[in-house]
Amino acid sequence: MVKQYGFYIDVNNCASCKTCIAACKDKNDTLVGLKYRRVYECESGTWGEKEGVASPENIYVYSLSYSCNHCEKPECVRVCPTGAHQKREDGITFVDSDVCIGCGTCASSCPYQAPKLNTEKQHMGKCNFCMDRLDNGENPACVDACLMRCLHFGELSELQAKYGSVRDIEPLASSAKTNPSIVITPSRLAKDGDKVRVMNPKEEIA
Amino acid sequence: MSQDEKKTNHRSLSRRGFVGALAASAAALTISGCVGKTLEEAEPKKAKELGLSGGEWKTVGCWQTCHAGCVNKVYVKDGIVLQQKTDDSHADSADFPQQRSCIKGRSLRQFVQGADRLRYPMKRKNWKPGGGGDNSLRGRDEWERISWEEALDYVASEFKRIKETYGNLSIASRILDPIPFLCAFGGYTTVWGQQSKGGWPPVAISMKGAYEDSNGDRFNLRKAKLIVLWGYNPIYSAGGSNASFIRHAKEAGAKVIMVDPWFSPSAQAVADEWVPVRPGTDGALIEALAYHMIENNLQDQGFLDKYCVGFDSAHMPEGEEKSQNFKDYIMGVYDGVPKTPERAAEICGTAPSVIRSLAEQMATTKPMVLKCGQAPGRVHNGNQYAQLFYTIGWMTGNLGKPGTEIGAADGSDGMQSYNYLVELGKSLMKKPDNIGCTLPRTGGQVDKGKYDPNQYYGIAYAEFWKAILTGKHTDFLRGEATCNIKCLVKFGRCSQINQNLDLTTAIEALRAPGKIEFNVTADFFMTPDCQYSDIVLPAATPWEREGGYAANLNSESIIFGQKVIEPLYEAMPDWWMHKELCKRLDMDYSVLGPDNPEQNAATQIAETKVIKTDGSEMEYLAKVTEADIKKWGILAEPHDGRIPFEDIAKTGSYQVERSEDDPYLYYGYKDYVDDPVANPLKTKTGKLEIFSRNLEKIIKTYNTTYVDPLPKYVKAVEGYEDSFSDWNNKVKGEYPYQMLGIHIARQAHSSFGNVKSIAEVFANNLIINPKDAKELKIEADDTVLISNTHGKTIRRVQLSSRVMPGVVIVGQGNWVNLDNKSGVDLGCNMNTLTGGHLSGAGHSPYNTVLVKIEKWSGEQLQPDYLLPQVIPSV
Fold this sequence. Notes:
The structure holds 2 protein chains of 2 kinds. By secondary structure, chain A is an alpha+beta fold.
């Protein structure tokens, strides 16, 4: 591998505007119901009582925009029966739509539910890092769309040098299995041991 | 469900699906030389893959009512927009940020090219001109396709007939923008009061002399050590990059405290602390903040003594009782009721120690920016909150110095400076006076005391629908008056039915026999306004109009959007409709504007002024040549400027480059604070008036509620206190929950309410605290009935602790979808539940709503994105 591209996701400053999803859907021209990028909205805390008044106890919310994590050890590439899932020299994983038969094996093995069946085109689809844009010297569509400037991309080692090495965050699956190429800044309000709930209606994160 | 609604599956939303869904429709007709083009014609030419070759990128307008305004660019090929992007005219940085567009702007191609666009002029089958027809069928009748000639003839002859039979004032419109051709036709009844700004403007004008001058520069935020944002969620309400400016201020060292009934999406991004407060009780919280400051002598007494009147007995305006001062009121010197945090907590739901902590931080951290959204003033008795807000701000002395601001999102988006660094040239379109009925918007002439006692000012927003039914309304100046509304008109972007108070009464009024004889709407979609109309006119969007679109995006940038596609089907621009109607009404269109309105945008760009780089004065932005004038039809003289006109036309936008040390920094009230004697304010005393007799006088003019010149918390009708049947024993009444209709990122009011690709990721369920849900035996995704004395509606629920117990939240703007049998609104439009209470200067108290919530026993709702679009039947 010459290099490995990755995403930096600044959860701390994300305001959940979901413009990244719109940019992704527009770029990939997906039908309503099909999203290659999603935003989890997670909350912590409860309401207790303080001085006789119902009061928030450690209540906060954070949002996590995520797509395919372009793992170092991608399950999709490993399990794909046709070789449609591939990993480029720059670490980007993508689906060769001419080869994909839409069997969905990748979808059931990916810990991040990244591959989705594109019913219109009858093959699997997922974030391919906007590799056509990248090859053209442009940024991924989601990165250029971000209103709070929370999504960035680059070579993973550079992202890690700049932003640290956190890549595990609720509710994403553990990074241990596939080595996802992401770096995350968690919410400033989060503390170790906080119990976090995903609160999106399920269709928002389908 | 009305007859126009045809079930389409969600596939129909893709461009291909769109074409498929429309395949059965006839080819477009043409009229007056304007060629309509259907997407079917262009579709086969579409590139097979999105290789994006052969087409071109163009800058387009986003004209929605969020007021953020952003740069959107579209890739257009063979008359179809295939893809979008946002501002890429320069590299993005905090100092010089791209004007990035929100999810709505990024979904404009689904909006403009939607399968649900209106296609042809239509007539309601059972409506008859001349006052005939069955009104009760409005909203459930069938539609007939008619030609533009027929449609315009119907509209013109009805206007003429109604004017002759009942007089001009029987024609009414409640949209904000005046309808120039109807003004020239002799006028029409309009509305007074306030939709958006709540109780703020008359208070600001009387207490500080002006309304829209508080907003500091975004660079000023970076100089603050503390930023307190009150009821303010810019990521939802303003979009664009506005919320990122708070992030930059944090990075420069500011602490951010959010005061709100919910931990909002903006809070999750920027808040260091969250102070919960119940809707409409903010005033009680502020009284307690003041108490703590006074008790501990934390107020900026020097500032109060020098710049304010009314704070204490030594500084009362001349001729006023010494006892009427704010300090003694707060401490309970005369009424025996000290306004302690403990007393406030019972009302506002904020713990006393949290109140004291907030007071300490606000009083001792300088410089501080205290910013409020307009929402907390959008309540019944909202003026008192505005009074208290300014007062507590001034008590901290944070005014007129770098890093300070005491403001109420006074401008459109609240994060942009009041001081415009680039100013679009004036529109050439003329606005004749409405000779029948002037437009006394709050914040306008009346609040400044400039009104003509002999003039008629129309019907209050809050009473509009009731007035149609009863023939009576409150005429400020005169008290009760009569009216006889027979005709409703809607041209323009706001929704008459969906977005106004008392929607249940609106539908009742539209269906009442013998009341509204004619209702005409021009729109893009089969909106609720169209559904309840008699004649529907398909309007072209700014993407389909010659001459494009010119606007100030904000204080630092302008946009010059282009026409990118031909009008879909028979959609026509508003100006063309007005011109055609003028012909039929024997009026000369030239009294309204240039004969070629397409010249307007180019002329506005040509006349745009920009700040000189040394900050000294404004200069022309564009260098305009004879060739430009000829090519664009510009109605101005050639002149020199900073950059060639063609450069602006090519990029479609211009933005002033900023940096930390540029000379453009702005914060309000500098002159006054520097020298209050030389630069008095435009208040009665020339000072900041905590006690304002003038405010009491202004509100009295309106014949509504009483507003005390001394800031005091006053409970709202249908506010928190009214949710109890027995306040002392805390026994809840029939409607125990407070409901808030927030601005949501999914919609700009009713706009985008129909765009499914946004609904897919913003479900906009009713947010309810898990504690309340448990008591109600409700789980996530359940459908609930929400009701009160004004109406009934249903919605799926989302459980979240981010909202206070006792408060429920839904994004406003959902299209009403009345089930005619049960009377239940299946669409969850907030205004099903808002009453028409008149308050203050006639502002609309949208955020004062009490409801009952029950599990819905009927069919459970599907997510919005799976529901059928409202497709016109012809």
